[in-house]
């Protein structure tokens, strides 16, 4: 008879400081109190349980932003995950702060491919073997390339440039533990579902990778995908659900004999509350409420931002405000900067900072019409219609028609007239997008330098919105067809 052992792996990703439960259909959904209650419940019921987090614990809530991730790490330490990998938002407060938070954490945070360039020295541990009830599990952390976008100007820090390099590094680590009798190998990745599939295709079966638990693309799955005999799972985003593997491991052959996977709702029906953790959260929340509880403005109605890839009401509102306040011709606002799907009608300071948390500088760059057209033709490529790609909300006056079949812009108007290729336009970009213009827009800093020097017109885009809200009420916004697709 084969030596079979049962292992339960719980997994979350892209939690983004989603601490608080919310009401839906007269039922509480999500929040770390019930998440912690569920994790504790499973740990009591099952002999062998691992709880893993696939990146982006930080950023996305006012509590996390106010305390620069320290609140998140205190809460995570309480829930006590067994392992986590870093995500791109773990560097939002700076690389040195990430290293501080890694020391603050009472659980290992792994990443194989973030390193100091000139010495090829890794900044975080690349992997970790966890042994539980006689089962040895090798975890390897792989970070998205886009972490480099956040620290693009830091010439000393690097990451691998493509999935092929990440696969090679995975092989090196797996080969180093071939004599350790590893029973299960799990990649904790933060590269998005599509790249998880590409990575799985490149893995040599001899390396023994069994599972990829991923993040970054916020993918909700009905069942794990299976690519090159590797199971790939992800659990959406936030704390409204948690992934659960129940695995029977054949220790004689070091592989999965059978498994069951579920996406478990975090709600009153499935999860007990952890009232001790609620008291910790309420301590942070009371400080936030006191500082950020004042009303900024009343919108005419609730405005929404349901998807990143299309024009939205909130995208139009925010980009129009930035254009007006900063004297720009065009504001290109990264869709991912808007972190919640709706706002209003009453807007408190805490609401603004929850939905628009990135207090980045805004650069004014001067671009020729031809360069603008080229930038949008790159942004609007049909293959970029994914959560992993960059998308932009544009200010009033821009009217673009993109032909999907021809893969080009068929019409580009500005203030009702055709865009002039040789005319110069003042364009607003947040610092993250300015620093990565060549990657996101296909336009380099050197190309636009002859048009005029880039200047910082605001050190905080959130401050711009807040100041505008303080003096304007009953604001409206609607979908106007600023960017349309045909073909």
Could you name the key traits of this structure?
487 residues, 29% strand, globular, single chain, 2 domains, 6-stranded mixed beta sheet, alpha/beta, 5'-nucleotidase,  domain 2, 29% helix, Purple Acid Phosphatase, chain A, domain 2
Secondary-structure map with pairings?
Elements: E1 4-12, E2 22-24, E3 27-29, H1 32-45, E4 49-54, H2 62-66, H3 70-79, E5 83-85, H4 95-104, E6 109-110, E7 114-116, E8 121-122, E9 127-132, E10 135-143, H5 147-150, E11 157-159, H6 163-176, E12 184-190, H7 193-202, E13 211-213, E14 225-227, E15 230-233, E16 241-250, E17 255-265, H8 275-292, E18 295-298, E19 303-304, H9 313-326, E20 330-334, E21 342-343, E22 346-348, H10 349-355, E23 362-368, H11 369-379, E24 392-394, E25 398-403, E26 408-414, E27 417-418, E28 424-430, H12 431-435, H13 437-440, H14 445-448, E29 455-458, H15 461-470, E30 483-486
Parallel strand pairs: 1-4, 4-5, 5-6, 10-12, 12-13, 13-15, 20-28, 25-30
Antiparallel strand pairs: 1-16, 2-3, 7-8, 7-11, 9-10, 14-15, 16-17, 18-22, 19-21, 20-24, 23-28, 23-29, 25-26, 26-27
Low-confidence stretches: none
Major sheet: arrangement of strands: 6-5-4-1-16-17
Structural class: alpha/beta
Number of domains: 2
CATH topology of the largest domain: Purple Acid Phosphatase, chain A, domain 2
Q: What is the CATH top level name of the largest domain?
A: Alpha Beta
Tally of DSSP helical segments: 15
CATH architecture of the largest domain: 4-Layer Sandwich
Shape: globular
Helix percent reads 25-40%
In CATH, the homologous superfamily of the largest domain goes by the name: Metallo-dependent phosphatases
Work out the radius of gyration.
Answer: 23 Å
How does the major sheet shape up? 6 strands, mixed
What is the mean pLDDT? 91
Total count of strands: 30
Separation of termini? 60 Å
